[in-house]
Structure prediction request, 303 residues.
Amino acid sequence: MTQTTGIVFDIQKFSIHDGPGIRTTVFLKGCPLDCLWCHNPESKKSKPEISFISEKCILCGYCASKCPNQCHIIDGKGHSFDRAKCLRCGKCTMECYSKALEVIGKIMTMDEVMAEVLKDVPFYETSNGGMTISGGEPMAQFLFTKSLLEEAKRHNLHNCLETSGYAPLARYREILANVDIFLYDFKESDPERHSKYTGIPQDLIVKNLVELDSLGAKSVLRCPIIPGLNDRKSHFKEIAKLANKLSNIIEINILPYHPLGKSKSSRIGMEYPLSNNEFPDEDEIRGWMDTVQASTKVSVKKG
Prediction:
């Protein structure tokens, strides 16, 4: 791939939770983190994957006839899929009538992505919206992300970038002029827990955020809260403490855990480590927000 092509796993129109106004969110595959609670597990790997929803299968046999490695077996027991032999070529999905099999991840050019984004310019103009690049981690496809941001700015679009903060600072500096708001994740304040829950150290993430703020970057601090892992008062106070250090922060978003990653993981043959977690109730979420708000003047909202 070149800097004008990337792997996209979704383009979501009429997004209202990924920055101000009505937006189109471009989701890129690939992420250096391995968060236990990830609600987009299909975004972790940088290569295309095959999604299989067995409940949708009508046992037509098309996939078994087209698969070059005989990964699909249709018999009296139903439909079995041997992922170990799968080449991810996607031939089995091309005419899967019931959409039980689908490819997640498509190589797209910058022009193809922008053609979709620009279709909704009237909505952006009336709502002060624009384009958001998310993932995965957009900085894992840095040249493609940079190209999209530059092209969007050529069309005078408002750009948001959702990021874990885990990338070289020099790369953030390169795109700074074309990002209006960084939707910046802050997943865990304790360094040891951060490494345990996400698979990577925390220091670069915090360092980059503080440095970007010093350069004038606007940010929204996005904090996923997972019951039993990081729903601690000490963590809530650290969220407020970090926000209080930032001169250009817009708001803090509390992102309540939701178990949608469980079914998504199953579809791509991955195990989901938090299988027993469920949605927190609204009173619990309100308590989290109030605890953060008590220690900061920065507005705290549910994301």
Observations:
- The radius of gyration is 20 Å.
